[in-house]
Every structure is written in C-alpha cells, then in structure tokens.
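RETRY 2/3 - previous attempt timed out on the joint model. Re-submitting the same 419-residue input unchanged.
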Amino acid sequence: MRCHHFESGECRSCTLLDLPRARQVAEGRERVETLLAPFLATGAAWQAPIVGAESGFRARGKMAVGGTAQEPVLGLPGQALTADLCDCPLYPDGVEAVLEGAKALIRRAQVPPYDVARRRGELKNVLVTASPDGEHLLRLVLRSEKALGRIREHLPAMLAAHPSVIAVTANIHPDHTTRVEGEQEIPLAGASSIAVRTGDVTLFARPQSFLQTHTGVAGDLYRQGAAWISEILQERTAADTPAGEASADPENPENPESRANPASPAAVPAPRIWDLYCGLGGFALHVARALPSARVTGVEVSAQAIDGARESAAAQRLPATFLADDATAWAIREAAGEDGPPDVVVVNPPRRGIGPELAAWLERSGVRDIVYSSCNPTTLATDLAAMPSVRVTAGRFVDMFPHTEHAEVIVRLRRTSTT
Ligand SMILES: C[S@@+](CC[C@H](N)C(=O)[O-])C[C@H]1O[C@@H](n2cnc3c(N)ncnc32)[C@H](O)[C@@H]1O
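RETRY 2/3 succeeded.
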C-alpha cells in the first residue's frame, strides 16, 4: 500500500509500511508463535494466518480535531495535528467524503476545536463507523453541550449532502483525559445502530460499542471460532456415543432432534457455550448460527453493545442470549449455580487480557475447551501462564492491524491435566 502521508513523514501510525506485506505478516506471525511456544501442547501446530485487505478495511475512524472552527484539521489522536488525514488509505471508500462533510458542519456551526494544552474549545474528536454496504455512523465528541444548538441547526444540510450518514450522535466528554470519548451520548439524527455484515452474520454497531478494526478479517476470525467449537462438540458427541449406537443424526450431531429427544437413550443436554467479552456478539452469533441446538450466552460490560447483540440475534433469529455484566463476576457466579460450568468458553478480552481472577477460575473450573481470541499476545501469554492445566492445541495469527506491530491471535485451548 502506498500512502503519501507516510512517505512525507506526516503520519507514522502505520509503522511497518516500509516492509513488504508478506514480510509484515511473516514477521508478525513469527513474533506471536515464538512468544506462545512455551504453551503449545505436544504435537500442536500453527495454522495459516488470517489475512485480509491491506487498505480500505478500517471499520472505525477516530480523528482528533485541530486547527480552527474556520479551518478544521482532522488528524490522528496522539500525533501532531498539522496534516489533515481524511484521505487515509486505510478507510473504505466513502469515509473521506463523510469526514469532509463533518468539517463543513464544523465550519458552518462554528464549533471551535478543543485545544488540549490550553483546555479550551469544544470539539475533541470525530468518530466514523463504516459498514461494508457504504453506510456511516458519525459521532462528534464534545467537551460540553454548548455548541449543540448550532450543530443541530446545520445538521440537516450536512445530512442532505451525505445521505450515507444514517445516524449522528454527540458524545459529551468533559474530562481532560486521553480517553477518546465520554459516557454521555446524545442522539442527534437517524438510526440507533448501523448494520455491519461481518462473516456470516450482521452486527448492529452502536455508539459506545466495540467493533473489530478490520471487518473482513473479523468475519474470518468469528468463523474460525465457530468452526473449532463445532469440531469440539462433534468430538464430544462421538466420545459420548456408546460403540455401535449411532446418534439419531450422525451427519449432523448438532441437529436439535438428535440431541434433545428425551426418549433416546443417547439424549444429552444441549451444549452450553459462553462468549465472554462478547461485544456485539460476533463469536456468539456465529456459534448460534453454526450450532442452533447449543445454548449460547454472551456477556459484555457495555449495555450499548448488549443492545446491539440482542438486535442482531432478533433480526437474524439466532438463538443466543446476551447479558450486560462483568465477565469474571458473571462466570464465577453462574458456574456456581445449578447448571455449573459450560462446555466451551470463548474469551475475547480487551488488551489487558482476562486477568488473574478469571484465569484462576478457568484453571480450576474443569472446563475442557476454551477459545481465546486476543488483541495482545503478551497478556495472552501471562494468562496462559496462569492456567498451567490448559495448553494451545491450535492457533492462528490474525492480521487485524495491517502495517503495524499490533497482532490479534486466536488459540484453541484444551485441558491436558486436572488441577
Ligand atoms: C476486544 S473487545 C471484543 C468484543 C467482541 N468479542 C468482538 O469481537 O467485537 C473486548 C470487549 O470486552 C468488553 N469488556 C471490557 N471489560 C469487560 C468486563 N470487565 N466484563 C465484560 N466485558 C468487558 C469491552 O466493552 C469490549 O466490548
């Protein structure tokens, strides 16, 4: 990928852009595989990396605002706001036009950019979510509600010029912190969510809900998680079926009729799958789609993300339940209940990892199969060190963040010894 901002030195956020693409992936893969080598089960092998488009892939644009109300500059948070980066080649077609539309709105409504050093001004960030179908959700992060009246007045003209923008909100972020957004979200126009086709499902992204950076790669990541879980459950069904006694539907052991027929001597309870840190439900919805007889529960701390996940499940008639809660507290509480721990746990935590408490619970829980998708292999290694009874039986480097050293990795874990 060529980028004139990188070549001129205006933007260095794609730190590996000088490296040929194949080398970026090979070296990223090597780093991850070396780091996780101590946790591999005997005989386990890494599978081919998940790689997607190198440009036009970014589902989320986060722009910091500099310049003046008359001449706003949209750059990247944490970099000098000297060059306007609206034409960043990582964004899909259409995002640049929406960002230009946002700048026109800033000019017309005379919204002064927030000056971090002087703690003055109003507009901190402009956030765009782009769907693969060319729709956009636009969010303006403001220090206060002071400029809202003027923004509301000039918004209709902006929306008329940019019909791809199906929703606009204001996020109020009064604190002087490095966080990109605040707690309060004020709808200004349009829909409450944007439909983002991802893999085999549609996610309904909302303000304040996490969305994976690379929509194409995320789809393959979710498919991989669901495929491993299908394999795990098929192995279990085969192991649970007494020799010579075929399951009611050997071609499809997950067929509800073959699993839930109380008259059948081989009847077993529907498998239970937990998707912890589920966000908008990408893993849970893929599992529910692949294994309709499973009892799939997604847990996530963001109520907005849970609303989006429920919207997806309802719109696609997928049998998954979603709850807003702390993943660790919920898992420990739920496992102590009547049904006990689930058959398979999926975890996809933020960069800090699952942490010692959830790792300790997983270690002692007896859960045999875990799928761990991590956006920080270093904290994944720490979490694996805290779970000596489970080992990596399969893994894939996931190129979620092309041209950077950031890496996603998905691993399948299996209990190899009891604690
Ligand atoms: C890396 S994202 C993954 C989300 C989702 N699995 C996906 O693929 O989009 C991590 C998610 O964990 C959520 N989260 C952070 N802390 C949490 C906690 N203590 N309990 C539950 N969810 C949490 C975040 O809101 C975020 O949605």
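DSSP finds eleven helices and 16 strands in the chain. Closing ticket.
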